[in-house]
């Protein structure tokens, strides 16, 4: 939902986020063009080289980003907000632990990290009882473990605990 | 007709009772039917679980079937495939996370329907459409196998490019989003698709020396991030409103939905034809689902409401995807060319069981081929019954509080992203895509063109360049014969259709959005 | 075990592996965890089929207590899979099955690995290549075909770019003084169908990729790129067995090429651990399923281990380097 339903609330303006995003897309386009140049953007006797398509795609990315940038720049409606700070805080309360979770997978393996993520979510973000939390946080990774590692023989990232248990 | 006789013989093979020794008691049991039910249930589980697509599921279970008779083995494996096809729609509708690539288009309207408390309706529509699409394709296989296989042979690189071109053109068009943001999204998709190894020259491109990038970006990772994680972040912003969706819990919803679906017979038929054509050519189920969705959006009276929970938006992609998925088995059996990743794995199975796919298979291994075709009919009927009985149960998953379901979804997203390439880097990329998905969606960049460009991008480029190599650089190759020129022309019409209709409506002075 | 905890995780893992496996000097080493087979190619290809067949054979005959798990890592022409094995130094629970991309990928791209980063285990078979043309074409033998090809404009389809199929194509060009337009496709099945549909003029498909069309009377083999004819005498297409295909050399086309289907392990594993897998593969080769697989695909069943295998791989690497250098396929150092 756009933030214009409550113009009194505080938050970053839609315009500034739009401009930031367009700039990011612009940089992405530049990177693509850089890579394409390195791969060769020419047209050899039997058709385009490896960088031909990425190059023109990159040009279009940049063009689209520049036009969007221009539109937003000349957009005088600055009151509309992207989201309220409170809402962003909510989003961050999920985004931050998820980032930690994703990184933790590399060190603890996916099962232990998942248990911690679920436990964190159920106790800190929502407020479930310790018993229910423990039940879900232990059962979900455990079932996942048996389904993937045992029945379907799909190896997922494992950490010190699994190594200690001999997997 | 000989085919009908063969088919009944096939039914007899599938339904045959076999004496089995169970707990010391010898009894006659319908062994193949039991395998069928096991296969479907396993398939549905595989379809729901992230990262265990039909191809993986079949590949993993393939070695277990070596000790069976080939007919029994293929029944088990193909039923896993049907189950996975049914199961892929479930997470798309309930959580906006496509379980399979071809379920992406199902999320566009299926997820909004679930959000509006119509999960049961959406699931019923998806399952029924899958069944109709698959059934249509099986009938086609039964009656026209040799003819259709010959048609597939006419598709060289230029023809293949034309098919991708048509699929793309029929999907893109005017949407609510600002045109330059649509363009940006689409081009980002194309750019992401080119990263990794260039299939034509074999050289690395756009990897900038990072070995993590050599495998490129699989579009499933982008989809899991953009749709799955992005959706959770949006839900958080709205303050846990995921909680306590009203989901109907009884079987009445199935019957009511069927009543509605009958009205869409023409939509279904059209989607079946699109699907079969894309499956045989073989472009595959994913382009088929997008193409069918795009065409339905343009033709339907409710076209402009697509994306807000329109039942037609579920019927069109599901029917086409399953018609394509099923008919993709035909080129595999008749020519030995897999039309889908799962078909590729099944192909490996055939070879291991000493069966040579190809024209001779229909002559030398009649019992096997017709047993398989019969099991397609029965497997889909059994599958439909199983999934429809589960509709109330599945819809009730939405009643689980957000505080529990959200972290579980996050875990599943991570598993799904990891299993695509067994690569940890992909999990990080999934997270990045998740954040991007949240921001892009809030800034009105459409996701669908981005995803479609990622799916079709490298395939289309590859076919384009293969065609140019064969023609030694001449563009005439794309209008060389009747087949390829027809498809190309259709594509161009589809591309300019929206421009033309927008022009007309502009002259009339009305808003472009009403023109579709 | 307590001591090892204080060191880094990887050392701990390795130490634990040794600790759990009993005293290595006395007892035979055995895998303690599921063993991964990395396939540096997509699902459904030749290497993948072989890995999955081995997985099935091992499971069916109970040749190993722990299960085998097949993992596809096809990215970067297989570079992704090889890098994974290279980075798993000392891990005795990982195997990689190889194609020719063991040599071609590091040469054609700048992906940093070499077979010397791995421990050779065993060569299980060699995959053959056959020159195929559409059965409707009038060429009776290799000479007819090459004479027609000399007029120019012939298209050769193959799997991948700067890999085995294209290397053979270049070798034919060099040996016969012809020029082909090479068109790369994703998989062998697709390549064969392009030939059946007359979209290209010839292919060098593996036997297993094209046999169905041979039997169906759509394709015909002209010669096999091996030193001697294939040893399989069962009738395949009509009354023709695999052994009826002459060698290319006997037809005046002096090109020989076979592709390795062998196994490697990460570096830093013990001889005991290698021995376990060598013994395992010996048992696999004894089974009927394996023999069927070999005759279906008309494989060359040469088995090699140890130094002999190592020497073969080193020789092949050198040969690939020469072939690819001549063809101009080496990666430009950037």
Q: Give the tally of β-strands of chain B.
A: 4
Instruction: Indicate the radius of gyration of chain A in whole angstroms.
Output: 24 Å
Strand order of the largest sheet of chain B: 1-2
Order of helices and strands of chain A: HEEHHHH
β-sheet strand percentage of chain B = under 5%
Helix content of chain A: 55-70%
**Helix-and-strand structural type of chain A:** mainly alpha
- Average pLDDT of chain A: 87
Radius of gyration of chain B: 23 Å
Provide the number of structural domains of chain A: 2
Widest sheet: strand ordering of chain A? 1-2
Q: How far apart lie the N and C ends of chain A?
A: 46 Å
The whole-number mean of residue pLDDT values of chain B reads: 84
* Main sheet: strands, sense, barrel of chain B: 2 strands, antiparallel
Overall geometric form of chain B: globular
Low-confidence stretches of chain B: 510-516
Uncertain runs of chain A: 1-7
Can you describe this structure?
The complex is a heterotrimer of chains A (167), B (516) and C (334). Chain A contains five helices and two strands; from the N terminus they run αββαααα. Chain A is mainly alpha-helical. Chain A has a two-stranded antiparallel sheet. In chain A, helix 1 packs antiparallel against helix 2. The longest helix of chain A has 41 residues. The two termini of chain A are 46 Å apart. With 516 residues, chain B is mostly helical. Chain B has a domain of 360 residues. In chain B, strands 1-2 form a two-stranded antiparallel sheet. The C terminus of chain B is likely disordered. Chain C is an alpha/beta fold and 334 residues long. Chain C folds into two domains: 166 residues, Bordetella uptake gene, domain 1 (D-Maltodextrin-Binding Protein, domain 2); 122 residues, Periplasmic binding protein-like II (D-Maltodextrin-Binding Protein, domain 2, 3-Layer(aba) Sandwich). Helices cover 40% and strands 19% of the residues of chain C. Chain C has twelve helices and 13 strands. Chain C has a six-stranded mixed beta sheet, sandwiched between helices. In chain C, helix 5 crosses helix 12. The termini of chain C are far apart. Chains in contact: A-B, A-C, B-C.
Task: Pick out its properties.
A: 167 residues; mainly alpha; 2 strands; flat; disordered N terminus; B: two-stranded antiparallel ribbon; two-stranded antiparallel ribbon; globular; disordered C terminus
């Amino acid at each position: 939902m756009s933030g214009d339903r409550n113009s009194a609330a505080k938050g970053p303006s839609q315009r500034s986020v739009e401009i930031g995003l367009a700039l990011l897309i612009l940089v992405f386009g530049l990177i693509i063009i850089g890579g394409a140049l390195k791969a060769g953007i020419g047209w050899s006797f039997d058709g385009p080289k490896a960088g031909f398509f990425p190059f023109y795609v990159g040009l279009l990315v940049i063009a689209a980003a520049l036009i969007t940038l221009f539109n937003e720049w000349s957009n005088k409606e600055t009151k509309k907000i992207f989201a309220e700070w409170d809402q962003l805080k909510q989003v961050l309360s999920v985004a931050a632990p998820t980032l930690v979770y994703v990184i933790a997978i590399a060190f603890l393996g996916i099962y232990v990290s998942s248990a911690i993520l679920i436990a964190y979510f159920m106790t800190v973000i929502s407020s479930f009882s310790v018993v229910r939390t423990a039940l879900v946080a232990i059962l979900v990774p455990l079932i996942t473990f048996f389904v993937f590692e045992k029945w379907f023989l799909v190896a997922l990232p494992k950490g010190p605990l699994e190594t200690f248990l001999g997997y | 007709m000989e085919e009908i006789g063969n088919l009944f013989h096939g039914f007899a093979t599938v339904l045959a009772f076999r004496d089995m020794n169970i707990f010391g008691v010898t009894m006659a049991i319908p062994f193949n039917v039991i395998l069928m039910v096991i296969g479907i249930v396993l398939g549905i589980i595989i379809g729901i679980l992230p990262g265990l697509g039909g191809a993986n599921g079949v590949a993993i279970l393939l070695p277990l079937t070596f000790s069976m008779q080939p007919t029994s083995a293929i029944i088990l494996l193909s039923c896993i495939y049907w189950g996975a096809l049914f199961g892929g729609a479930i997470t798309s509708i309930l959580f906006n996370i496509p379980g399979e690539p071809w379920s992406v288009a199902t999320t566009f309207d299926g997820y909004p329907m679930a959000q509006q408390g119509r999960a049961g309706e959406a699931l019923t529509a998806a399952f029924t459409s899958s069944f109709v699409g698959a059934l249509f394709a099986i009938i086609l296989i039964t009656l026209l196998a040799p003819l259709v296989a010959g048609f597939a042979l006419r598709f060289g690189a230029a023809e293949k490019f034309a098919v991708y071109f048509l699929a793309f053109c029929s999907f893109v068009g005017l949407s609510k989003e600002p045109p330059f943001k649509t363009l940006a999204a689409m081009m980002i998709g194309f750019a992401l698709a080119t990263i990794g190894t260039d299939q034509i020259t074999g050289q690395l491109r756009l990897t900038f020396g990072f070995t993590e990038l050599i495998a490129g970006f699989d579009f499933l990772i982008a989809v899991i991030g953009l749709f799955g994680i992005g959706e959770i972040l949006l839900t958080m912003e709205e303050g846990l409103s995921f909680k306590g969706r009203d989901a109907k819990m009884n079987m009445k919803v199935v019957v009511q939905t069927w009543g509605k679906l009958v009205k869409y017979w023409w939509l279904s038929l059209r989607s079946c034809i699109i699907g079969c054509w894309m499956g045989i050519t073989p472009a595959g189920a994913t382009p088929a689902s997008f193409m069918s969705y795009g065409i339905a959006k343009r033709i339907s009276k409710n076209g402009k409401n697509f994306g807000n929970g329109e039942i037609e938006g579920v019927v069109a992609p599901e029917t086409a995807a399953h018609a394509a998925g099923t008919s993709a088995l035909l080129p595999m059996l008749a020519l030995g060319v897999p039309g889908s990743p799962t078909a590729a794995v099944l192909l490996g199975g055939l070879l291991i069981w000493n069966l040579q796919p190809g024209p001779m298979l229909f002559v030398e291994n009649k019992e096997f081929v017709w047993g398989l075709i019969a099991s397609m009919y029965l497997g889909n009927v059994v599958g439909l019954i199983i999934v429809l009985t589960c509709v109330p149960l599945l819809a009730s998953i939405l009643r689980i509080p957000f505080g529990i379901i959200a972290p579980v979804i996050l875990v599943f997203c991570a598993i799904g992203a990891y299993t695509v390439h067994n690569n940890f880097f992909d999990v990080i990329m999934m997270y990045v895509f998740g954040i991007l998905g949240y921001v892009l969606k809030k800034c009105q960049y459409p996701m669908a063109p981005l995803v479609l460009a990622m799916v079709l991008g490298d395939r289309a480029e590859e076919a384009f360049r293969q065609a140019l190599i064969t023609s030694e650089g001449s563009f005439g190759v794309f209008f060389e014969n009747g087949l390829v020129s027809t498809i190309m022309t259709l594509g161009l019409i589809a591309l300019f259709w929206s421009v033309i209709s927008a022009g007309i409506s502009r002259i009339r002075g009305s808003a472009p959005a009403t023109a579709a | 075990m307590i001591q090892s905890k204080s060191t880094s995780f990887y050392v701990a893992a390795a130490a634990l592996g040794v600790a759990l496996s009993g005293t290595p000097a006395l007892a035979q080493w055995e895998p303690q965890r599921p063993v991964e087979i990395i396939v540096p190619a997509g699902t459904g290809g030749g290497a993948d089929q072989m890995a999955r067949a081995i997985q099935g054979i091992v499971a069916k005959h109970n040749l190993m207590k722990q299960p085998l798990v097949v993992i596809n890592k096809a990215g970067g022409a297989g570079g992704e899979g090889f890098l994974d094995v290279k980075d798993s130094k000392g891990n005795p629970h990982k195997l990689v099955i190889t194609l020719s991309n063991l040599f071609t990928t590091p040469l054609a791209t700048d992906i940093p690995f070499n077979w010397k980063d791995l421990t050779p285990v065993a060569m299980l078979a060699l995959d053959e290549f056959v020159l195929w043309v559409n059965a409707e074409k009038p060429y009776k033998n290799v000479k007819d075909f090459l004479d027609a090809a000399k007029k120019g404009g012939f298209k050769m389809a193959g799997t991948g770019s700067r890999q085995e199929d294209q290397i053979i194509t270049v070798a034919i060009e060099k040996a016969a003084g012809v020029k082909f337009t090479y068109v790369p496709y994703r998989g062998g099945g697709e390549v064969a169908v392009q030939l059946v549909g007359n979209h290209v003029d010839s292919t060098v498909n593996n036997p297993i990729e094209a046999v169905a069309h041979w039997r169906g009377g759509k394709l015909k083999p002209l010669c096999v790129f091996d030193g001697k004819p294939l040893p399989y005498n069962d009738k395949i297409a009509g009354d023709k067995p695999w052994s009826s295909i002459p060698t290319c050399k006997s037809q005046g086309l002096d090109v020989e090429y076979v592709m390795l289907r062998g196994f490697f392990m990460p570096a830093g594993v013990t001889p005991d651990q290698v021995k376990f897998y060598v013994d395992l593969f010996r048992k696999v080769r004894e089974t009927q399923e394996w023999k069927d697989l070999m005759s279906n695909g008309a494989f060359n069943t040469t088995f090699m281990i140890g130094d002999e295998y190592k020497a073969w791989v080193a020789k092949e690497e050198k040969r690939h380097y020469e072939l690819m250098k001549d063809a101009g396929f080496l990666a430009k150092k950037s």
